[in-house]
């Protein structure tokens, strides 16, 4: 018997968008933002989305995260077709499965780092002590274990973004959606944040979709997609080879 | 972290604005409490009116006197159970601003007609034994520190004594309380026989009669029968229920209740605008935060309650403390006019109304911003 070369085991799909259209009504006429867009993202991938302003990157991210719904087509996340979910179900699904990281951090100014990070856990039945413990761990992961009591205004941009990432991590979601996470940061802070995202992807197995304008940031991803006028036009090779 | 502490922190964000809003609500509810007590003071007569009591006065006006002999004739009319009479003495204790009513009455008859005046039995006995004896209500006793055994001089204005002097001196033999918080305990009552004998005017006159009917259902018929009995006599009568009598009396000083209600309504409308403005601003400033909450998985309903809860907190903090303080001051410190008002207390119904207004204010100021927050589209809000 000759040895059979084992088939490479197909990676499971974390994301599957099929024939997605998205248009907005503005001033009586409808403008098409995404057109016939199809996309597969395997579990554990770190995908960078690039493209000119207005090309529909944020819109795409919103569809994946269930913040908005496609006009046509289907969005399947980890086997769950999210188009079929009712609005309240979608909200609950989002709380469990998606972690968002925003360009401008969007932290609550009235809460300290610990409470900002613990905020999503208010939707769970966890005890106060348990929430606090998890928030401490999450802040430890992003390297801010010593900044628990500090309020956002007393933290640097890079630190605030790391608090934002810790908040996205706290519910242990399968996917992190990051919309220009380094867009507001200087080089060094951006580097820290990108390194952190890489660690989360590599060591914790988080699937990451990151929108960015910065080619150097995109280099951190395992795959780079370019979006132009609502279509995926080009796929460039990954920068960081796994 | 709980939803409540999140709301409280939200309030603390613009704490000066929050505090000013809470303060204005607080002041409004203080005002509400005191005006409620003042309104009761003015309406006290009508509230304590008994359905089975009639007041019989001179047909021309209350200041004209009726013969004392009418009493026995009234007792013979069908449907009349008890009869008593009183007279307006209008005396002054030390100075005019110390006003309180004084009436000469027949002790047994009067207390029989007004069971809400509670006088200890031994004090009634003492009164019946003391010709110059008088009893005084708790309000006035407290106001001037009158005690049993005191001799109180009253200057006559309408009724000088036979010898031409103005000073009537009464021996305080009893202090009565009111059975209900609405009972007027300001009058001083003294003996009619002493009055009738000692004053300079014509004997055997009384100011008005108080009649108890057998059955309140026939009160109007009995009133009519009384007026018929004395028709075409030198002193014709006008009998009416105590409620109607007091209402007519009150309308002479204007419709205080309506004026107070108008003031309160205007104040509340203003406060509603202030609170609604605070909430609208607060939600507008936090559109982004609310959208983030939604993105993190907070439901539309939760966000709605979050905003509404904040409005209720503002209304509650200001409103409850205002009600509580006014209630405490009214109950503990009492009448700010020092006894000018016959009664001074905050009725339970008004306290309940106040609590209801607090909730209405919270909901009224918060529901539009709350609905706005509920229907906030995450993607739209985050683009701004
Ligand atoms: N809610 C909306 N209503 C109307 N038009 C919208 C809406 N959301 C997005 N658009 C339009 O869709 C297009 C794509 O927007 P999107 O925010 O996805 O672009 P983007 O690629 O993220 O751009 P940027 O790099 O500037 O963030 C733009 O022309 C935008 O004006
Ligand atoms: Mg964008």
Automatic annotation (TrEMBL), chain A:
It holds the Pfam family ABC_tran. Keywords: ATP-binding, Nucleotide-binding, Transport. The keyword Coiled coil does not apply. It comes from Acanthopleuribacter pedis. This is ABC transporter ATP-binding protein. InterPro entries: AAA+_ATPase, ABC_transporter-like_ATP-bd, ABC_transporter-like_CS, ABC_transpr_LolD-like, MacB-like_ATP-bd, P-loop_NTPase. SMART domains: AAA. One of its GO terms (molecular function) is transmembrane transporter activity.
Automatic annotation (TrEMBL), chain B:
Residues 63-228 form the MacB-like periplasmic core domain. Signal peptide: none annotated. Residues 263-377 form the ABC3 transporter permease C-terminal domain. It is found in: Cell membrane. Keywords: Cell membrane, Membrane, Transmembrane, Transmembrane helix. It is a multi-pass membrane protein. Pfam families: FtsX (PF02687), MacB_PCD (PF12704). The chain crosses the membrane at residues 256-276, 303-331, 351-371. One of its GO terms (cellular component) is plasma membrane. InterPro entries: ABC-4/HrtB_transporter, ABC3_permease_C, MacB_PCD. PANTHER family: ABC TRANSPORTER PERMEASE (PTHR43738:SF3), ABC TRANSPORTER, MEMBRANE PROTEIN (PTHR43738). This is FtsX-like permease family protein. It comes from Acanthopleuribacter pedis.
């Amino acid at each position: 018997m000759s040895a059979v070369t084992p088939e490479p085991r197909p990676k499971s799909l974390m994301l599957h968008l099929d024939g997605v259209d998205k248009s907005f009504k503005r001033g009586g006429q409808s403008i098409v933002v995404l057109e016939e867009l199809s996309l597969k993202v395997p579990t554990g991938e770190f995908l960078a989305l690039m493209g000119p302003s207005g090309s529909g990157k944020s819109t795409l991210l919103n569809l994946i995260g269930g913040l908005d719904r496609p006009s046509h087509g289907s969005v399947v996340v980890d086997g769950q077709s999210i188009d079929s979910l009712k609005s309240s179900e979608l909200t609950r699904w989002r709380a469990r499965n998606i972690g968002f990281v925003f360009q401008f951090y969007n932290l609550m100014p009235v809460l300290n780092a610990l409470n900002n990070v613990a905020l999503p856990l208010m939707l769970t039945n966890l005890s106060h002590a348990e929430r606090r413990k998890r928030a401490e761990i999450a802040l430890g992961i992003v390297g801010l274990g010593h900044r628990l009591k500090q309020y956002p205004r007393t933290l640097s941009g890079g630190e605030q973004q790391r608090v934002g990432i810790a908040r996205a991590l706290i519910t242990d979601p399968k996917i992190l959606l990051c919309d220009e996470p380094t867009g507001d940061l200087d080089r060094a802070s951006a580097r820290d944040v990108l390194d952190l995202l890489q660690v989360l992807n590599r060591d914790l197995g988080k699937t990451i979709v990151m929108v960015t304008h910065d080619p150097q940031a995109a280099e951190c991803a395992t795959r780079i997609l370019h979006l132009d006028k609502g279509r995926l036009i080009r796929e460039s090779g990954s920068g960081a080879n796994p | 972290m709980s939803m409540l502490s999140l709301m409280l922190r939200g309030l603390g964000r613009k704490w000066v604005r929050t505090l000013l809003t809470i303060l204005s609500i607080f002041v409004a509810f203080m005002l509400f409490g005191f005006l409620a007590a003042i309104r009761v003071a003015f309406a006290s007569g009508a509230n304590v009116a008994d359905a089975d009591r009639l007041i019989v006065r001179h047909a021309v006006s209350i200041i004209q006197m009726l013969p004392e002999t009418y009493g026995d004739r009234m007792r013979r009319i069908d449907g009349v159970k008890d009869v008593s009479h009183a007279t307006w003495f209008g005396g002054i204790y030390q100075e005019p601003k110390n006003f309180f009513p004084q009436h000469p009455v027949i002790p047994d008859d009067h207390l029989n007609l007004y069971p809400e005046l509670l006088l200890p039995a031994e004090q009634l006995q003492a009164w019946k034994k003391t010709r110059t004896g008088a009893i005084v209500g708790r309000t006035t006793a407290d106001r001037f520190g009158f005690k049993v055994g005191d001799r109180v001089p009253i200057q006559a204005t309408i009724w000088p004594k036979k010898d031409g002097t103005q000073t009537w001196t009464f021996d305080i033999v009893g202090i009565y309380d009111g059975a209900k918080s609405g009972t007027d305990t300001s009058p001083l009552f003294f003996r009619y026989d002493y009055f009738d004998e000692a004053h300079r005017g014509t004997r055997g006159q009384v100011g008005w009669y108080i009649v108890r009917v057998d059955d309140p259902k026939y009160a109007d018929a009995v009133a009519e029968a009384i007026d018929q009995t004395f028709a075409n006599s030198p002193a014709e009568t006008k009998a009416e229920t105590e409620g109607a009598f007091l209402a007519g009396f009150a309308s002479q000083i204007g419709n205080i209740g309506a004026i107070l209600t108008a003031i309160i309504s205007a104040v509340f409308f203003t406060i509603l605008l202030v609170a609604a403005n605070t909430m609208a601003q607060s939600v507008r400033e936090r559109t982004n935060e609310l959208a983030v909450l939604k993105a993190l998985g907070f439901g539309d309903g939760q966000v709605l309650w979050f905003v509404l809860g904040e409005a209720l907190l503002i209304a509650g903090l200001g409103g409850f403390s205002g009600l509580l303080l006014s209630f405490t001051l009214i109950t503990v410190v009492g009448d700010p006019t020092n006894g000018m008002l016959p009664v001074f207390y905050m009725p339970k119904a008004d306290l309940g109304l106040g609590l209801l207004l607090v909730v209405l204010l919270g909901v009224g100021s918060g529901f539009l911003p709350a609905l706005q927050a509920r229907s906030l589209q995450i993607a739209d809000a985050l683009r701004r």
